[in-house]
Amino acid sequence: MPSSPNTYDVGLLSAAQAAATSAAMAQQVQAQQAQVQAQVQAQVQAQAQPAAAAKSKPRRRRADGNGNLTVEQKRRICEKHRSTPKITQKDLCRWAKLEFNLQRAPTQPTMSNILKHEHLFKDNVLGVLGSQRKTIRPTRHAHFDQVLANWVMERQNKGNITGDMIKTKGRELVKQMGLEGKLGFSNGWLASFKARHGLMKRTNNVQSDKAGSAALAGKDGAAYGGILDANNGMLPNGLSVDPNYMLPPVSMDLTLEQIQEMLRDYVPSDIYTVDETGLFFRASPNKLVQGDEAQTMLADEARLTVLLAVNADASDLMEPYIIGNVVPPKNIKMASISQLGYHYVCSSKARMTVFIFQQWLRDFNARMASAHRNVVLLMDNAPSHVMGCVALSNVRVVMFAPHLGMKVQPMRGGIVTSFKGKYRLKHLTLAIDHLEDGLSDIYRVTQIQAMSWIVDAWQQTSKEIIVNAWKPLGVSVPFTLDSNMDGSDDKNVEEELWGLLYCLQLSGVVNTKVLVNSRWENDIHKRLNEDMIEDPQENDAEFHVPEVGGVDQGGVHGGDHMSADDEHPGVQPLTAKEQLKSFRDVIRYLERTGTADSRDPQLMSVIDFLKKKQLSLRFDNASNSSLTI
Predict the structure, then answer these.
(1) Buried (b) or exposed (e) across 209-237, using 16+ Cβ within 10 A?
(2) Is 528:383 a contact under the CB 8 Å cutoff?
(3) End-to-end alpha-carbon separation of the chain, Å?
(4) Is 535 exposed, middle or buried (CB count within 10 Å of its CB: 0-12, 13-18, 19+)?
(5) For residues 280 and 298, is the Cβ–Cβ distance under 8 A?
(6) Could you say which of 73, 236, 396, 400 would form a disulfide bridge with 69 (CB–CB 3.0 to 4.6 Å)?
(7) Do 347 and 145 contact (CB within 8 A), yes or no?
(8) pLDDT: which is higher, 442 or 553
(9) Is the pLDDT of residue 455 over 90?
(10) Pick from 320, 322, 282: which is nearest to 302 by CA?
């Protein structure tokens, strides 16, 4: 039945009211949602305001006004502290501000932290591609990295080394060293490797000295290997005042007259020489003087290679650069050079490599640059003396021709012999101490003891011998030798060595001249194709410092030696054995009272006096003894 008109109208009215109610409710819900969103947004903004305020503040820069100090600046700070030990940290902060043109001086805590971590910077003299780096990132598989870098550096003067050749050699070394799957040889790895070691693209042309001294340059271009950048054939360097200025490249095959002419432009204090020598630091004298069979006898002997550098007036005996094959413990790694008196690095078989030599050469150049000095450095044309990519701003290198170096190299003019004589005196003295203490291995000495003796022996090397060694090159020191340069101490070294050998019953067996110049110690440079992939091992025993005094377990039974005790009735005279032990204990104690650079000269005179008396007593005791060592 159809609805009436009234019924239809009421239905329409109910539907309209429902629609209106729904719309109102929807609007109310939307309003509530908007209100909630507004509240949430307000809370978020309230929380973000402090962070925004913090971000709006200008970021506080470090002391240099441009961010962190670079690694090179930190290294130079450590170098300044090393060369000026009495400088305070506050003065060092002021020096850094002026030296590096900083907006603000570094803070004292910053300076303290830099000096505390000197060990991180002393081996990181960066190449030209890394002079602005601000952090030192530890290299994974550092020994592999060093072996590969050394391979590249050895071949820099042999021809072009491409990136693919480096990758291929890297993959070969990975297999040999058991590192498969641990390294990827991508283009990114190659770029990092080349930047880390300052390897640059080679070209075939070389620009000679700016002054055009072609006569003195000789074969400079060929010797330097033509390693250039795109800036007019010059080698840039971050240490130079002008990064485009470089000293002339290395000079080779110069005549003696040409070298003498060159050296006239330098004062004696700016003329340096460098050389390396091997040291079987605990070998018995018998082994060192043997004939061809000594090579077999010394094959397993512990050895060190020592790099020595000094200038012509003997005013700068640089810290010995010692190479061993034992990884040092953490306390040695973290110690500063000023604390140790030497610089220690590891190498397989304790040999000098191109990698280590270039590391030393960069450090030497950086030290001269820090001191604003321009010097000349003379050296032999040894297998490890490859210049490669080393860009020098303050050091001119002269390599002796082989026939000339044998005659005029100052290190071979008595300097190394004097140094070794001082070392052998210390070693043989300890051997007699051990003999008198009743020890079986009388020549036993730890590596850290030997390195300490190396420092002392180098500092005690006669300055007169150093100065005289330069005379064949026409270099003379324009001042009178002082009392410390009379050479009297070195004149007695051979006699003292003979006396110690006599006490060891070896005076008729060992020639003292051979003892300080054993030909078996001259094999110190890595050969081009020599395998050196063995990773140096840790051996904490080599870095153990023995206690003062020895254990008396019997010893040399010599006759009684007359003493002052005999003049006092009722006092039992000391036997020769007891007298020798008293000398040993007193001398050992006095030698431990200070470091080599801080001992009182009067104390050193007392020690020298006691040692002479001790040697005299030992000599008398050996004369009455039938013991054969």
Answers:
(1) beeeeeebbbebbebbbbbbeeeeebbbb
(2) yes
(3) 142
(4) middle
(5) yes
(6) 73
(7) no
(8) 442
(9) yes
(10) 282
Task: Fill in the DSSP letter of residue 322.
Answer: E
Strand order in the sheet with 395-400: 251-252, 395-400, 375-380, 271-279, 304-311, 321-324, 343-346
Six token digits for residue 497: 């060595």
Residue the block writes with tokens 């304790």: 350
* pTM of structure: 0.70
Residue 413 has pLDDT above 80, yes or no: yes
- Looking at the chain, the whole-number percentage of residues with pLDDT higher than 70 is 69
Q: Which two tokens mark 624? A: 């009455």
Query: In whole angstroms, what is the distance from residue 618 CA to residue 282 CA?
Result: 21
Give mean pLDDT, residues 517-522: 83
Identity of the amino acid at 49 = Q
Mean pLDDT of 590-619: 71
Q: Which pLDDT belongs to residue 518?
A: 82
Banded model confidence at residue 251, pLDDT cuts 50, 70, 90: confident
Task: Return the pLDDT at 7.
Answer: 46
Nearest to 233 by CA among 217, 244, 220: 244
Largest CA distance in the chain: 158
The owner of tokens 């050389």 is 275
Q: Which two tokens stand for residue 614?
A: 């001790």
User: Could you tell me the two tokens for 575?
Assistant: 């036997």
CB 153 within 8 A of CB 355: yes
Angle made by CA atoms 338, 339, 342, in degrees to the nearest 5 = 65
CA 524/CA 304 separation, integer angstroms: 9
- Could you identify the residue written with the tokens 């020690």? 607
Residues 6+ apart with CB under 8 A from 395: 247, 361, 364, 365, 368, 374, 375, 376, 377
